Amino acid sequence: MASPASPLRQPARLRERGVPSTFRIGGAETVLARAVLAYLRLVARSVSWSWVDRGGRPLDGGDVDPRLAAMRRRETPALLSYYIADALGVATLALVHDGFLRWMRELRCIVDDTLAGRASAAIIGSLGGRFTVLPPSGAPERMHGVYEVIRAGDGCAFPVDGGGPYREVGTGVVALAASLGATIVPMAAALSPALSFAPQSRVRVPVPKGRLVVAMGDELRIGRAADRRAVAAELKGTIDALSAVARAAARSG
């Protein structure tokens, strides 16, 4: 797939994509975003990639593309959920798989108002995606941002453990799904080999000529009366299982 060649959006365009008027992209975020996107495009030109099912069996386009297309046609929103460690794997997938990129462009990517989050917003915007930047966890303005996401009614994509505790799933994603009437779509994106520069979050950085393996689980449908703690535990178990399957396939590939 040819990578989109559009430059990083300017701040005015970024605000049109769901960012509060107080949000500004600064020099540090721009530099980081350009560097990360250029590197991911370099990786995408040589990475070997594939999809597997939850049992680790390889899937081809006839299995995956119809499902992604069906997600785009559905009126019910979907929440694509994965661990922050897989964020760069998910971004790389958007650069190599057209069907996934088209779906991601229809989701609202939710990022935190941090240096990495603002740089992610710039990258998402440059790929034609939509996003919302939320204030840090605990800030009084954060709940207002969440309400804006609910009011928009869009499907969303975000790491369920962003900001920590890492590799844990809280009830927030379940509450959001219930409020939106959305289904949760768990995913894992494993990279091999990969570098990690963040010991706590363990964000994995792909390397050229490496391997990317993606596993997507069955949708979780959330009723308003659902036990949110039980659903969060089920989602964690599913993402953990998908991560183990994807990592094993990436190492053996």
Overall description:
- It is a single chain.
- This protein is α/β, with parallel strands linked by helices and 253 residues long.
- 45% of the residues lie in helices and 22% in strands.
- The chain contains 9 helices and 9 strands.
- It has helices at residues 11-16, 27-44, 61-73, 87-96, 98-106, 115-126, 140-152, 172-180, 228-252; strands at residues 48-52, 58-59, 78-82, 108-112, 130-134, 156-159, 183-196, 204-216, 220-221.
- The longest helix has 25 residues, at 228-252.
- The two termini are 21 Å apart.
For the CA atoms, what is the radius of gyration? 17 Å
Mind describing the biggest β-sheet? 9 strands, mixed
Q: What is the average of the pLDDT values?
A: 87
Helix count from the secondary structure assignment: 9
Quote the beta fraction: 15-25%
Low-pLDDT ranges: 1-23
Helix and strand sequence: HHEEHEHHEHEHEHEEEH
Estimate the helix proportion, in percent.
Answer: 40-55%
Shape: globular
The total of beta strands comes to 9
Name the structural class.
Answer: alpha/beta
Beginning-to-end CA distance, first to last residue: 21 Å
